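Allow me, if you will, to draw on your knowledge of protein folds for a short while. I have a record of one protein: its chain in single-letter code and its fold written as discrete structure tokens. Kindly check, if you would, that the fold set down in the tokens agrees with what the sequence suggests. Thank you for your consideration; the sequence and its tokens are set out here:
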Amino acid sequence: MVLKSSFTMLVVATLAVFGTYTPQAEAHSWADCIDWKFNKSGGKQDWSDKGGKCVGYARRFPLHKAFGSLDSADPSRHYQQVHKNPNSALPCSNRKAGVEPGSDETRANPPSKAYGGKYGQMTVTSVGDTLCVRWPAKNHAKKNEPNGMVQINLSKAKDSKDISQQELLKNTIAHLPYKNCNPGSNEDRRACGGCFKVPVRAKGTYLLQWRWMLNKNEWYTSCADIQIK
């Protein structure tokens, strides 16, 4: 009788512990902003909404969603390329391909149709300008997480359809540390980012790809059109 009572108390106590435990989900990132403008020039970078504003977005990026919240959207924002050969996968999500299909980032015709209204504006820039790209940490900027590099790939094909992932990898223009983030206790929605110079291109519209590897052959991408004037 004593053993049965003790066992019952142990089960109740165990259920109580698990009932109050909320697991911290591991999520995957995406480019939140392609052209982030800081409120102050120079000094410490502040990637939070208080530290600046976005003036250029990824394709069909919804303006009404809170920063870092789109991993639970339907479809989610993150697009994971196939594991077996990610370098032969689609560079931009079509909502069908990949391990995690992601949102629709196919090229519009004309590209401007993927921007404005309920979506963010297209990035407009010039050769030599500095573009700053922002992304949410999504629990991957902790001390025990590797500081992988974000690839910024920029097509040389002006005013054309999207080139392949293999061709994009021939046009990597920057590597940005993933863990370049604001400090804070909210590991899921810490704001991160990095900046680079726009390389020489003729005037026109080009495909820009944000690409990040979480684990071996586990790549996530976001795509944007940028207009170089």
User: Anything to note?
Assistant: The beta strands are 35-38, 52-56, 79-80, 123-125, 130-136, 149-154, 172-177, 191-197, 204-215, 218-228. Residues 1-25 have pLDDT under 50 and may be disordered. The chain has two helices and ten strands. The chain has one domain: 29-228.
